[in-house]
């Protein structure tokens, strides 16, 4: 994206992050945003902002880790800022298998691949994240592989997980 902040890119007349926020807000008690720049914009859509503790832009796990110590609920719903058509029932569907207390993670599966940034984490599993990051690991997929997880079928709406990774897509 040429160093641009994806969440602020315009799609269908609004920034991508606004689309995501409007999809998620009815599904959560509080909408938290991890951002390392453009805090003035993200403050207009989020209830609370978090900045990475790690230097540089270390990816989504750094953002999750930054918010981890503030979580006071059983679950954390995770989403990327560049998936503007997320399912309006994402949280409900991901919550289904979490009635099994042994599960730490429910991740969306679009029929072809897991959507790592459309997931529901049990907050107690976040305790393992700092050590993972301290080892220099940054892969969401890699960290998830250390957790007890369930894939949740979203093959009825794979287009809901379309994301923007190139400037000519917006």
> CATH homologous superfamily, by name?
Spore Coat Polysaccharide Biosynthesis Protein SpsA, Chain A
The fraction of residues assigned to DSSP E strands is 15-25%
Low-confidence stretches: none
- What is the CATH class designation? Alpha Beta
CATH A-level architecture: Alpha-Beta Complex
Overall domain count: 1
Termini separation comes to 11 Å
Q: What coarse outline follows from CA principal-axis ratios?
A: globular
- Number of separate strands: 8
Mean pLDDT: 92
Discrete helix count: 6
List keywords for this structure.
170 residues, alpha/beta, Spore Coat Polysaccharide Biosynthesis Protein SpsA, Chain A, 4-stranded mixed beta sheet, 6 helices, 20% strand, globular
Provide an overview of this structure.
The chain has 170 residues and is an alpha/beta fold. The chain has a single domain (6-169), classed as Spore Coat Polysaccharide Biosynthesis Protein SpsA, Chain A, CATH 3.90.550. It contains six helices and eight strands, in the order ββαβαβαβαββααβ. It has helices at residues 16-24, 39-42, 60-68, 90-95, 129-134, 140-144; strands spanning 10-11, 14-15, 32-34, 48-50, 75-79, 105-109, 114-122, 149-153. The protein is globular.
């Amino acid at each position: 994206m040429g160093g641009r902040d994806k969440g602020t890119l315009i799609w269908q007349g609004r920034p991508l992050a606004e689309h995501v926020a409007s999809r998620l807000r009815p599904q959560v008690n509080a909408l938290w945003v991890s951002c390392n720049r453009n805090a003035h914009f993200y403050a207009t859509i989020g209830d609370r902002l978090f900045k990475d503790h790690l230097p540089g832009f270390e990816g989504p796990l750094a953002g999750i880790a930054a918010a981890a110590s503030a979580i006071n609920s059983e679950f954390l719903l995770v989403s990327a800022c560049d998936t503007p058509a997320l399912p309006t029932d994402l949280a409900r569907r991901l919550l289904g298998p979490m009635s099994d207390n042994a599960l730490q993670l429910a991740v969306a599966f679009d029929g072809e691949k897991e959507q790592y940034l459309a997931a529901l984490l049990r907050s107690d599993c976040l305790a393992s994240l700092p050590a993972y990051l301290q080892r220099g690991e940054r892969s969401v997929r890699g960290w998830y592989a250390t957790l007890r997880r369930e894939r949740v079928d979203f093959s009825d709406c794979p287009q809901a997980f379309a994301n923007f990774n190139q400037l000519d897509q917006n």
